[in-house]
Amino acid sequence: MSDAMLWMLLKGTWETIVMTFVSGFFGFCLGLPTGVLLFMTRDGQMLENRKVNRALAIIVNAFRSIPFIILIVWMIPFTRLIVGTSIGVGAALVPLSIGAAPFIARMIENCLLEVPHGLVEAARAMGAKPLQVVRKVLLPEALPAIINSASITLITLVGYSAMGGAVGAGGLGHIGYQYGYVGYDALVMNVVLVLLVALVFIIQFLGDLMSKRVDHRK
Amino acid sequence: MIELKNISKVFRKKNVDVRALTQVDLTISEGHIYGIIGSSGAGKSTLIRCINLLERPTQGQVLIDGVDLTTLSPNKLVNVRRKIGMIFQHFNLLSSRTVFENIAFPLELIHAPQDRIRAKVEELLELVGLEKKRDDYPASLSGGQKQRVAIARALASDPAVLLCDEATSALDPATTRSILSLLKDINRRLNITIVLITHEMDVVKAICDDVAILSEGKIVERGSVREIFSDAKTDLTQQFINSSLHVDIAHEYLNRLTQMPGGETRDLLLKLRFNGATANEPVLSSMVKLYDVDYEVLNAKMDTMGSMQVGVMLLKISGTAASTTQLVDYFKDKKLEVEIIGYV
Question: Do B27 and B44 fall within a single domain?
Fold first, then answer.
């Protein structure tokens, strides 16, 4: 394998990492508040509000049902508006973040549902306001589960970003597509696969480690 | 101090109304320990949650120091709640926080300065005897220790009232006693009004001044613990009292038990119930003198409620048929409650 190829794979790996983590970050920025709101507006919760809950659920479900590869294409005009281009790492971040957000929102909602209701009740009895309950009870108590969800989300994003390679996103997916599918270079394709597998393993390992670190439930 | 007026609570589940509480009136005086006892499903939990409006009553008023909580804005309600501590059957400690941080929680909510938080938490750790567990996480504590942390946390904001929701139901008897004596101690030292709900008469007996008996969402009887124990008006109350004062009949006797009097060949088995008025009289020795019978105490339980002696006793009496009949009348005469179990 030539130096140029090696260099390209290295750059591709870096791009995939950037796409995964940056879109993961923005995805969380959108998904976390949405998930919290989905939870808090459920029946029996502190901000119980059926209308808001329904509306949010519809939006979340709608975005979750769009296949990712179609979402990328469908969002091209919006992506151009925001980053000025529809090709490359920057362009991939927009649909990746938007695609991940509803997924993250549902994950967060599920994590919060697992926090024992008694804790919320105790906090309310002590005079905690809704935002205090979220910040000081729900999120810290759900943190181990949220970190696990984050690993799952990031791993999904690795896959999504690779998929995005077919329609203009950069990174390992693009290399795999160009050299593996278009050029049929088995070596490059396999190296790309190994790199992706390694990346997924590392994310899962770090996620498990961090989740265990913050879990004091024994 | 706490007054519940005409409280009703209806839950709507799948278009069916479930009445949890019906027109409950309750007055709880300052500095008292008030017990609310009832079997499961009686509405106890709902009732105690109505006091701090964790459950909003469908109808009625909750007055604390004359202020009707049901009319307060959410913000004002939050402030009132900060003066009402609450502890729970399952402790509800935050697993992500150490003992220290758990106790500090209510103070963080009001943005208390760090040095004040530290001083207060350390004082409370000492009060509940957990100075050494300061930096441990709840998962490593025993049930009793967890409840102590919960008590310390409930006291952090200097509440005037402490609500206890089945606070000892998940604890073993020895731990229950230590938690109850801690509550009593807190009540005396800090003059905190305590409202507790329980299904165990032993808890009421151990620390309460007043008690209300709740059944199917209604209060069927209420009064000072002394009054209720010495003169229960309803069967339900009597059942609760019996559950804390009961004597078992050994299998040996149960197997031979018949309802046929056998004169001198069989002994009479009877249960005597004492209450304050009669417990001090030497009825047993007078019985022997008056009716020429022999007796054996098979099982007995005596207790002091306030300044009153109450108890129950299982007696085996041998004598002639005539003397045992007279004997039963004698006990009734002495206002003792007699129950003839049978003959062995």
Answer: yes
Q: In this complex, do B82 and A127 lie within 8 Å of one another by their Cβ atoms?
A: yes
Chain B neighbors of A122, CB-CB under 8 A: 86, 88, 92
Q: Tens of pLDDT along B121-158?
A: 999 999 999 999 999 999 999 999 999 999 999 999 99
- Residues counted in chain A: 218
CATH of the domain at B223: 3.40.50.300
pLDDT digits (tens, 9 = 90+) for A57-102: 999 999 999 998 889 889 999 999 998 888 888 888 999 999 999 9
B124 shares contact with chain A (CB less than 8 Å): no
The per-type count for chain A, helices as H runs and strands as E runs, is: 10, 0
Instruction: Among B184, B217, B244, give the residue marking a domain's end.
Output: B244
The total number of residues shown for chain B amounts to: 344
CB of B102 within 8 Å of any CB in chain A?
Answer: no
Please state the domain count of chain B: 2
Torsion of Cα atoms, B167 then B170 then B172 then B176, to 10°? 0
Which residue of chain B is at minimal alpha-carbon distance from A122? Answer: B92
Q: Could you tell me the residue range of the domain that residue B290 belongs to?
A: 251-343
Cβ-contact B124, B71 below 8 angstroms: no
State how far the alpha carbon of B251 is from the alpha carbons of B297, B317, B339, in Å. 16, 18, 18
pTM of the model: 0.84
